[in-house]
Protein 1
Amino acid sequence: MKNILLIITLLISWNAIAEEKTWFCATEKSGGLIYKDSLWKTAKFKPKRITVMQTNDYLKFSGNVLGFGSEKKCSGSSGFLVTCTDYSTIFTLNLETGLATSASTFGWLSRFGEDDKPYDTLSTTVWRCESF
């Protein structure tokens, strides 16, 4: 009887264990616009790398590369996409292929003044992510 209870307890607790995964993402392509000197110009962005810690539908981003800064509750979509949004930034990761996209209009929405940098920007980035 004790063995049966032990087996049932183990089976129940096995489902409670969170799926954890670490994704290492690097910029594949990036583009956007920058508003400087009262003109919109195309912009080139430096390649970036981020680490994304996944626990079920929660993603935690390294640094503040995307403007999230910390752990975010994200929504799963059809079992293989995880999407995070925060004000003017969106990040979507395909869990099957490891491809991701992000887009941000944060700079344009939060003008701080003439002397503050970075300048107003709108950007889209395509990421290639690998999990180990």
Note: The longest strand covers residues 20-36.
Protein 2
Amino acid sequence: MSKKGIGSLIVAGSVLAASAAATVLVKHHLDSEKIIDKVKSVLGEDSKVIGSWVEPFYQRVDVNGRSTWGIVGGVTTMDEFDVAQYHFIADAVTGELLNIKKVQ
């Protein structure tokens, strides 16, 4: 293969890898929004969410002895005069909330 052919192959591979990474990031962002909405629903209408965060990448998590790819994050709520934080883990494939707990 010529140098020009190798260069074209490298460029094509880089473009393919970049587009795959962009697709994963967009999917992660959309999944994260859906999961934050689920967390808000679980906490109820009385809890006003004033902030939220989600780890930027899918993570390998163990929940109840089961290992899976997860989305990890948290929300901050305000009820009357109390501010509370909750951490959550959701299944990256199904979007199911696997764990949500109030941080002390």
Note: The CA atoms of residues 49 and 77 lie 4 Å apart.
Protein 3
Amino acid sequence: MALALIVPTMAASDISSTAPSIAQTSSLYNAHEFSLNLGTGYILDTSAAFQQDYSFNLAVGSTYFITRNIGVEAWLPFYSTKGASFQEVQVGGIFRLPLSADKAILKNVAPYVGVAAVYNWDTDSTWGYIAKVGSEFRLNKKWSTFIEGQYRNDEFQNWGQGQVNLVGGLKLIF
């Protein structure tokens, strides 16, 4: 449903603007970028395959890159079992490394790593952490897709007891 609304918007965003740009650059990845994000994820644990206790999950978020490579992000995931449910907030940092500003085949790709703290107000374990590794693929200067693997653990003592998620989505860049 959300993708059906976003795809026509992506096509409209390719119309060039006549407003002058503050900083002209050949890179698709720049400092002072702000993005609005929409993503979804899936638990990769084989024992939990097709066993999630929600019918869908989405996350809305934003990212701000202070420099070309270092950014901060916040996510608000929501899940649906019998209605939308907000139970936590995630805040963290991200380090990306765009592959090239000059080579056409590489200029759209930026691998990244990140960490986040998670506060969940609906469980006994209110704090957790997320470690992530992924890649962003710029479609143009305003839109990108991303895919990442996440390791999430809600207990700081049992490092091997977390879950691995596959997450992906879209970003609208300003």
Note: Residues 50 and 128 are 24 Å apart (CA to CA).
Protein 4
Amino acid sequence: MTEIFGTSTFDRLFNAAISRGYSPEAAAAIGATISIENVGADLITFKGERQKRYLKYCEKNRIDYRFPDSKIEYIFVELSTNRDYKASEIKYAQTVDAAVKSFNENYLGKTLNTTELLTLIGLGNELYKIFVSNA
């Protein structure tokens, strides 16, 4: 498993995305989506078929499925191996808005209402400012 740096889950998620060549805008969009979707100490929760694929991946690679870093790693494995999704669309996003739309609608298959979209874009832009503008 790739070593992921940072003190908070957001730090670790953002740094994992950047180290894999994702734009800062994409990293912020992924962080915003995950933070809204899965509030709690664990932060990242997989359900249904996605949970089954995750557990199979962990078993195959002898990774402890309970650790947040394992879940962060899996997000990027899944993004790069999902044949139905063009990861480059989010990976090279030039705006947080485009990255939020791509990650949610095209990757997670979620249709966002206006409030959800604006909330994620707002949070994504705040994360972007924290991680990029203050660097």
Note: The helical segments are 9-19, 24-37, 48-61, 68-81, 87-91, 96-107, 114-133.
